[in-house]
Amino acid sequence: MKPVRSYRIPFLLLLLLLVAAFLLNTGLGSVAIPLKDTFNAILGRAVEEESWRYIIWNYRLPKAFTAILVGSGLSLSGLLMQTLFRNPLAGPFVLGISSGASLGVALLIMGSGLISGWVGSLLINDVTLALAASAGSFLVLLAVIGVAARIKDTMALLIIGLMFGSVTTAVVTVLSYFSNAEKLRQYIFWSYGSLGNLSWPQLGLLGLILLVGTGLSILSIKPLNALLLGEHYARSMGTSLQRSRYIIIGATGLLAGAITAFAGPVAFIGLAVPHLTRQIFDTTDHKVLVPAVILYGAILLLLCDTLAQVPSSSYVLPINAITSVIGAPVVIWLLVRKRKMIF
Amino acid sequence: MSRTMNTEQKEFALEAAQLAVGYPAKQGARIVADKISFGLQAGDFAAIVGVNGIGKSTLLRTLGQVQSPLSGQVSLIGRNLDSFKNRELAETVSLVLTEPLATKNLAVWELVQLGRQPYTNWIGKLEAADKEKIAEALAMVGLQNSHSKKCYELSDGQMQKVLIARALAQDTPLMLLDEPTTHLDLYHKVQILKLLQRISHEMKKTILFTTHEIGLAIQLCDRMLILDNQENPFGAPCELIEQKRFESLFPGDIISFDSQTGNFKIVS
Q1: Any idea where the ABC transporter domain is (chain B) (predicted)?
Q2: pLDDT digits (tens, 9 = 90+) for B71-83
Q3: Least CA distance to B152: which residue of chain A?
């Protein structure tokens, strides 16, 4: 009897795909750079034109790494939420993380405009935006955890997260209503999500936070597997429910919160990638699913970003639009083809 | 019957004394059932019977510490239930519940191997001994050839066997099952109950389950606990029949108990 299937080959393929997607992403852009020179620039060898090296090192590489971090982090937190809530519709933002971040950013952009005129607009830059987003999502997450300590039912938590989301959305609506067009535009652009604004030090910080979040997720693999049978069974098999719940929520908060702070509320990936992954990896074991969604998410966002920058043109489309426009039909197609939901 | 003689001397595998079960509330608790006292020995195959809503499942869930007792004592293998840590409890009691699984996409083997969780390391790696236990559990319920089937492909009866196999893989001296025979036809009801009886007698496991199949339970069980909201009698099925305990179980207007056949009949 050897019921444990080896997933070495799919993993190897995904790794190769990741490398290919990474090269494709760095090789294509508004300025056409030959593949050979892209390679040389990455490896630090001589490049035909010095500006190409600059573009690749200061623009394309950080963006590609951001795509990898954002894609894998969101997908992982999506998987955590889907298993914790045993709900295929759950994603990284069900706990109100993105709405909290939106509120923080809306308060910064539109609030500063209302109060202090031009002094306010000086305050708005990448760093303050990231801080406002973190503060917002952190506060909402704190509220959700506070509620989680008082209730026993995990499903209620899902509803509470949605309610927090509604409230913050309402506040943002009120703020928008009183804002001028310029501020509104600034806010809307933030809400599109963006992978291209991170410097290397910011990237390092994001990577570090995601590393901690991923570590917590790996520690949760065993309880996640137990939760597949429901909370009563999980408990009867020795899982400490409350502690696992905190760790899983904490991991999601770190992953989705940090990503939203640095790249805005990137939609769809976190919900879709776990489903796409289950189509390839026919297992429910999180020992397989966790690394698989990390790889899959990174690949998918790299590809989406490649399309978003519309190769050989100077347009860059909002990443949120591309993830949904490309992703949603793929998910629909997969579900129709298989005629059943794998969850 | 022969076992009743030396009940006093032996240590109980599962014992309840003056137990009250129900749900705590702000103003006084909502007691579902109380004054429950009984003791089961290693290898006993026992059923809890009673009308709908009398508290069979609540009692079972309390014994498995899914919920806390309102008052009274529960001890497992001579130790108070409160003194068990999560992990120790997982090595002592395994459950088969009625709640639907979160996902039916699990393969039979994946589901059964989760039973090994109390014994595996931090990430749940299965050692050779674990795999052996899993194979044994699958063989015991006769599903060794369907280990890679998905749960959504299984019939209700097979699904119940998989859940029992998972509990077996957990390798506990006690096994609690909540209505293991619901949704099954008569043949499969008997099949499941005979399987459980065999497990309890061959492997010396104490198995306690709730059921509405009183007739079958009378034929198969070593002990029965009747929840009637008054005395909650407990004993061997024939003792209970002699004491005419089943007669008052249901209102007499539609069905009555026939002590000759050990079954209920429709009043004409």
Answers
A1: 14-254
A2: 999 999 999 999 9
A3: A342
